[in-house]
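User: Show me a protein chain along with its predicted structure.
Assistant: Here is one chain, sequence first, then structure tokens.
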Amino acid sequence: MVDLVITAASVKSQGGTVEHGVAGATITAGKLLAVAADSRYVLADSNGAAPINMPRGIALHGSSADQPIAVHRSGPIALGTTLVAGAPYYMSETPGGIQPIADLQTGETIAQIGLATSTTTLDFRVTAPGVVA
């Protein structure tokens, strides 16, 4: 259960798709987000019930509840952390967290969120089969 330690000030979309919405909670840049039933962005959680366990994007900046949020939906993103080039990364059981494959645990909903294309860049593409480990 060792999530990536992300430097919020260093999170930057490097192309791809960005969408805008409304935060449903206090959110920090670099957190993995899902869309709640009320269409607001909340922290994705592999131990949460649907739709919270279906990641949609990564927060590009901080936001308070009921405030606008920009969300990186696909393509390359710098997270301000060191990645293992070629390694897959997954939604964590820690709300909003991102973890390496080695930290997946029994009972989590598996959702691969991307592959590291370098030690600084994640190619964000959600593969969410909804299988529980």
